Amino acid sequence: MNTKQAAEKWNCSEKTVREYCKTGMIPLAEKTAFRWDIPDEMDKKPPVGRTKAVYLMYCIKDHTLPEIKSYWNEEKLLKALEYLSDVKFILDYAGEASLEEAVKKCRVSEFGEKLIKKEEAEMKTDNSLGVEISGEAGLENGLPIAKGKIGVKAERKQHT
Predict the structure, then answer these.
(1) Which residues contact 122 (CB under 8 A, 6 or more apart)?
(2) For the residues 47-62, what does the mean pLDDT come to?
(3) Same structural domain for residues 129 and 114?
Protein backbone atom coordinates (compact mmCIF):
# COMPACT_ATOMS: atom_id res chain seq x y z
CA MET A 1 0.00 0.00 0.00
CA ASN A 2 1.10 3.61 -0.41
CA THR A 3 1.12 6.45 2.14
CA LYS A 4 -2.35 7.65 1.14
CA GLN A 5 -3.85 4.19 1.67
CA ALA A 6 -2.03 3.77 4.98
CA ALA A 7 -3.19 7.21 6.15
CA GLU A 8 -6.80 6.28 5.40
CA LYS A 9 -6.43 2.88 7.07
CA TRP A 10 -4.78 4.33 10.20
CA ASN A 11 -6.83 7.55 10.34
CA CYS A 12 -3.86 9.90 10.24
CA SER A 13 -2.18 12.21 7.76
CA GLU A 14 0.06 11.13 4.89
CA LYS A 15 2.79 13.26 6.41
CA THR A 16 2.62 11.17 9.62
CA VAL A 17 2.87 7.96 7.59
CA ARG A 18 5.87 9.30 5.65
CA GLU A 19 7.55 10.27 8.94
CA TYR A 20 7.02 6.77 10.36
CA CYS A 21 8.53 5.30 7.18
CA LYS A 22 11.45 7.71 7.12
CA THR A 23 12.35 7.11 10.77
CA GLY A 24 12.19 3.31 10.44
CA MET A 25 9.09 2.73 12.58
CA ILE A 26 7.44 0.78 9.76
CA PRO A 27 9.75 -2.14 9.04
CA LEU A 28 10.01 -3.26 5.44
CA ALA A 29 8.64 0.03 4.13
CA GLU A 30 10.62 0.80 1.00
CA LYS A 31 11.20 4.11 -0.69
CA THR A 32 10.88 3.91 -4.44
CA ALA A 33 11.56 6.79 -6.78
CA PHE A 34 8.77 9.06 -5.52
CA ARG A 35 6.81 7.15 -2.89
CA TRP A 36 6.87 4.75 0.02
CA ASP A 37 5.68 1.17 -0.42
CA ILE A 38 4.29 -0.18 2.86
CA PRO A 39 3.59 -3.88 3.38
CA ASP A 40 -0.14 -4.60 3.19
CA GLU A 41 0.01 -6.63 6.41
CA MET A 42 0.84 -3.48 8.41
CA ASP A 43 -2.60 -3.13 9.91
CA LYS A 44 -1.66 -0.91 12.88
CA LYS A 45 -0.16 2.54 13.01
CA PRO A 46 2.80 2.83 15.41
CA PRO A 47 1.41 4.07 18.77
CA VAL A 48 4.59 6.04 19.49
CA GLY A 49 7.29 7.71 17.46
CA ARG A 50 10.86 6.48 17.12
CA THR A 51 12.30 8.47 20.03
CA LYS A 52 9.83 7.02 22.54
CA ALA A 53 10.20 3.56 21.03
CA VAL A 54 13.97 3.76 21.37
CA TYR A 55 13.73 5.02 24.94
CA LEU A 56 11.42 2.10 25.74
CA MET A 57 13.94 -0.29 24.20
CA TYR A 58 16.69 1.28 26.35
CA CYS A 59 14.49 0.49 29.36
CA ILE A 60 14.14 -3.11 28.16
CA LYS A 61 17.90 -3.42 27.71
CA ASP A 62 18.48 -2.06 31.23
CA HIS A 63 15.49 -3.96 32.70
CA THR A 64 14.37 -0.77 34.44
CA LEU A 65 11.55 1.74 34.22
CA PRO A 66 13.08 4.96 35.54
CA GLU A 67 10.20 7.37 36.04
CA ILE A 68 8.73 6.42 32.68
CA LYS A 69 5.33 5.54 34.14
CA SER A 70 4.93 8.94 35.74
CA TYR A 71 5.43 10.65 32.37
CA TRP A 72 3.72 8.33 29.88
CA ASN A 73 0.33 6.67 30.00
CA GLU A 74 0.81 2.99 30.95
CA GLU A 75 -1.88 1.84 28.51
CA LYS A 76 -0.11 3.58 25.64
CA LEU A 77 3.21 2.07 26.69
CA LEU A 78 1.72 -1.42 26.72
CA LYS A 79 0.35 -0.76 23.20
CA ALA A 80 3.83 0.40 22.21
CA LEU A 81 5.32 -2.84 23.57
CA GLU A 82 2.73 -4.84 21.63
CA TYR A 83 3.58 -2.96 18.43
CA LEU A 84 7.33 -3.33 18.97
CA SER A 85 6.78 -7.05 19.45
CA ASP A 86 4.50 -7.37 16.40
CA VAL A 87 7.12 -5.78 14.14
CA LYS A 88 9.93 -7.78 15.78
CA PHE A 89 11.82 -4.86 17.37
CA ILE A 90 11.54 -6.71 20.69
CA LEU A 91 11.29 -10.40 21.52
CA ASP A 92 9.63 -12.45 24.27
CA TYR A 93 6.72 -10.08 24.88
CA ALA A 94 3.69 -12.18 25.81
CA GLY A 95 1.13 -9.48 26.56
CA GLU A 96 2.12 -9.07 30.20
CA ALA A 97 -0.35 -7.05 32.23
CA SER A 98 2.28 -4.78 33.77
CA LEU A 99 5.16 -2.80 32.35
CA GLU A 100 7.50 -4.03 35.07
CA GLU A 101 6.85 -7.67 34.11
CA ALA A 102 7.25 -6.97 30.41
CA VAL A 103 10.47 -5.00 30.76
CA LYS A 104 12.04 -7.81 32.77
CA LYS A 105 11.05 -10.53 30.27
CA CYS A 106 11.57 -8.80 26.92
CA ARG A 107 14.76 -8.35 24.98
CA VAL A 108 15.67 -6.13 22.06
CA SER A 109 16.02 -7.89 18.70
CA GLU A 110 18.56 -7.27 15.97
CA PHE A 111 15.98 -5.08 14.18
CA GLY A 112 15.44 -3.12 17.40
CA GLU A 113 19.19 -2.60 17.76
CA LYS A 114 19.27 -1.21 14.21
CA LEU A 115 16.48 1.24 15.08
CA ILE A 116 18.39 2.32 18.20
CA LYS A 117 21.55 2.88 16.16
CA LYS A 118 19.59 4.88 13.59
CA GLU A 119 18.16 7.11 16.34
CA GLU A 120 21.58 7.56 17.94
CA ALA A 121 23.21 8.39 14.61
CA GLU A 122 20.54 10.83 13.49
CA MET A 123 19.61 12.45 16.78
CA LYS A 124 22.60 11.81 19.05
CA THR A 125 20.15 10.56 21.67
CA ASP A 126 21.11 10.36 25.30
CA ASN A 127 18.74 7.86 26.93
CA SER A 128 17.37 10.22 29.55
CA LEU A 129 14.01 11.87 30.03
CA GLY A 130 13.26 15.43 30.81
CA VAL A 131 10.14 17.35 31.63
CA GLU A 132 9.41 20.53 29.77
CA ILE A 133 7.24 23.06 31.59
CA SER A 134 6.17 26.39 30.20
CA GLY A 135 3.80 28.80 31.82
CA GLU A 136 3.20 29.77 35.44
CA ALA A 137 2.96 27.82 38.66
CA GLY A 138 1.82 29.01 42.06
CA LEU A 139 -0.73 28.64 44.80
CA GLU A 140 -4.42 29.38 44.66
CA ASN A 141 -6.46 28.97 47.83
CA GLY A 142 -3.50 27.11 49.32
CA LEU A 143 -3.45 24.55 46.49
CA PRO A 144 -0.75 24.24 43.81
CA ILE A 145 -1.82 25.25 40.32
CA ALA A 146 -0.10 25.36 36.94
CA LYS A 147 -1.09 27.37 33.91
CA GLY A 148 0.52 26.49 30.62
CA LYS A 149 1.87 23.28 29.20
CA ILE A 150 3.60 20.36 30.84
CA GLY A 151 5.06 17.73 28.53
CA VAL A 152 7.66 15.03 28.19
CA LYS A 153 10.60 15.17 25.93
CA ALA A 154 13.46 12.82 25.34
CA GLU A 155 16.53 14.93 25.88
CA ARG A 156 18.95 14.93 23.02
CA LYS A 157 22.47 15.88 23.89
CA GLN A 158 25.14 16.44 21.29
CA HIS A 159 28.11 14.18 21.83
CA THR A 160 31.40 15.50 20.60
Answers:
(1) none
(2) 88
(3) no
